[in-house]
């Protein structure tokens, strides 16, 4: 994750660069992020993508112990964040009174995202394949329920 110094972040951080406040796999200043000018970190939620990348895609390996994995793990993390954003949207859409065929489509997408064993190539292909299909579906949901989302995914 990259961020620029500003209202939400006290310093610049390039993509793939570990945060300077990271100690092992934990934030060393987590209890005082807001006071340290990092309210953007407080608001950020990867929705479980980081853990899934380490555990499912890389079988428990991490760039901390295998530095050569850093670039590919960061790319996988970005892709998995996109997967998890779609999971979150599809779960939220489950609270709507969808037509039976739309509910079936929603469930099928959700099953594919939650049950698939993701690989690095799958995550690279996700945004130009399945993510686009889900976004088109969610656009239709939003047309039917205009107040469901403030903007398209």
Descriptive tags:
153 residues; mainly alpha; two-stranded antiparallel ribbon
Q: What global shape is seen?
A: globular
Count, helices: 6
State which percent range the strand residues make up.
Answer: under 5%
- Biggest sheet, strands in spatial order? 1-2
Q: Tell me the Rg in angstroms.
A: 18 Å
How many β strands by DSSP?
Answer: 2
- The helix/strand series, from N terminus to C terminus, equals EEHHHHHH
**Average pLDDT, to the nearest integer?**
87
Contiguous uncertain segments of 5+ residues: none
Characterize the quaternary organization of these chains: single chain
Largest sheet: 2 strands, antiparallel
Span of the ends, CA to CA: 19 Å
Class by alpha and beta content: mainly alpha
Helicity level, as a percent range? 40-55%
Write the layout of secondary structure elements.
Blueprint (H helix, E strand, L loop, with lengths): L21 E2 L2 E2 L11 H5 L5 H9 L12 H24 L6 H16 L4 H7 L3 H15 L9
Antiparallel strand pairs: 1-2
Helix pairs in contact: 2-3, 3-4, 3-5, 3-6
């Amino acid at each position: 994750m990259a961020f620029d110094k500003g209202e939400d972040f006290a310093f610049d951080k390039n993509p793939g660069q570990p945060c300077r406040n990271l100690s092992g796999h934990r934030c060393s200043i987590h209890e005082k992020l807001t006071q340290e000018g990092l309210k953007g970190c407080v608001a950020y939620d990867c929705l479980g993508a980081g853990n899934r990348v380490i555990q499912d895609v890389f079988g428990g390996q991490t760039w901390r112990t295998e530095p050569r994995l850093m670039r590919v793990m960061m790319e996988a993390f970005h892709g998995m964040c996109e997967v998890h954003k779609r999971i979150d949207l599809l779960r939220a859409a489950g609270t709507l009174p969808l037509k039976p065929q739309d509910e079936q489509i929603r469930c099928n997408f959700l099953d594919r995202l939650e049950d698939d064993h993701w690989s690095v190539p799958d995550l690279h292909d996700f945004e130009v394949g399945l993510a686009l299909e889900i976004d088109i579906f969610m656009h239709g949901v939003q047309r039917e329920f205009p107040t469901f989302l403030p903007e398209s995914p």
